[in-house]
Amino acid sequence: MRSKFEVNATMVANEFIDRYMAVANGEYVKVYLYLLRHDGREITVGEIADALDHTESDVKRAIAYWVRLGVLEDADAQARSEMSDRMVMGRQDSGCAAASPKGHASVSGNRTGFEGQEMSSATVSSTTAPSVQTQERRHYTPAQVGALADKEEFTQLLYIAQKLMGKVFTPRDCEVFAYLYDSLHMSAELLEYLAEYCAQNDHKSIRYLETVALSWNERGIKTANQARDQAASFNSDCFAVMKAFGLNDRRPGDAEAKIIRRWFQEWAFSKELILEACGRTLKAIQKPSFQYADSILDKWRKAGVRTMEDVKRQDEKHGGQKTAVKEGAAPAGYRDNQPQLKPQRNKFHNFEQRNTDYDGMVLERLKQRLGES
């Protein structure tokens, strides 16, 4: 008897299970299986991270690990070193690297990857990778984490962090703290503040915590005081933007904070320029819109605008007297999809207006009467 339902399945080579899986980090295995599942289409590092609840740096480290072992073939090593790589599934061999039919893993006589399994068309693109680039993270075994736990400071750090974040850490969570503490040499005081900072902003995911930690490390933040100053500065910037939009009665949401962070930190615009974009947004569409302001700032960024003088030159270049509506490409819904209002017509509009000059007629009559007298 045969089932009427077709089963969609992903084939995993026995060689991978027998030779590689047992000794690999479980998170790395998950990344490999996810790539294998999506053999045949391009996927981003961000998509993998979201699907597996990893950080994007975790995904990159997993890919680098499998490339080193030869399990994945690096299609462009130079591009990968610049964080814009494309990984092609399949083990380097003297056979070939032809794409498998229809993008699925298939049985083939050629040895391209593991025996009997051709994996070559799934690619990973990191074009959406975050701006923070980090070194390959050292993997800590449970024994190594246990050795660090012999230090009272590290044990106290884990205890306080768990209390602050309201959760019991998994072995992987402890490994993240081990990496931040031991490899990046972030102090226990700084990591305690990091846990407090994440908890206060309703982010209790270790993935989010690690992303913030790597960002701080990239910017040279080494002490809790430096982190507090940075957080206070960003909070001040957020308040200024919200006030400019007339939204000072609430805090920015996660998506709004992400946009504001991009303006100040990634694009490095001054507060003056950002508030100018907010003002132009209100003039253009009569309501606050982070997307609309973002389109204005993105246009300025591409034009190399850094000061108000640059803004004035841009205005003059585009006509001088153009309104703020034309400053940026309006988001969908404000221009392209916005219904155009047409003048309504009724029986009064259809009535042909008379152009009789009554004042002229009165003057003419008056002249005639004066002439008769």
Describe it for me?
With 373 residues, the protein is mostly helical. The chain folds into three domains: 14-125, Arc Repressor Mutant, subunit A, CATH 1.10.10; 142-222; 243-326, no CATH class. It has helices at 14-20, 26-37, 45-52, 56-69, 77-81, 142-149, 152-165, 171-183, 188-200, 206-218, 224-244, 254-266, 271-285, 290-302, 308-317, 347-350, 358-372, and strands at residues 42-44, 72-74, 86-89, 123-125. Helix 3 (45-52) crosses helix 4, helix 8 runs parallel beside helix 10 and helix 9 packs across helix 10. It is elongated, with a radius of gyration of 31 Å.
* Amount of beta strand: under 5%
What sort of overall outline do the alpha carbons produce when their principal axes are compared? elongated
Largest sheet: 4 strands, mixed
Show unreliable segments: 76-113, 115-123, 125-134, 331-340
Q: In CATH's first tier, which class of the largest domain applies? A: Mainly Alpha
The assigned structural class equals mainly alpha
Strand order of the largest sheet: 1-4-3-2
Number of helices: 17
Radius of gyration: 31 Å
**In the CATH hierarchy, what is the architecture of the largest domain at level 2?**
Orthogonal Bundle
Distance between the termini: 122 Å
Name the helicity range. Answer: 40-55%
As for the CATH topology of the largest domain, it is Arc Repressor Mutant, subunit A
Q: Averaged pLDDT, please?
A: 75
Please, how many domains? 3
The arrangement of helices and strands along the chain is HHEHHEHEEHHHHHHHHHHHH
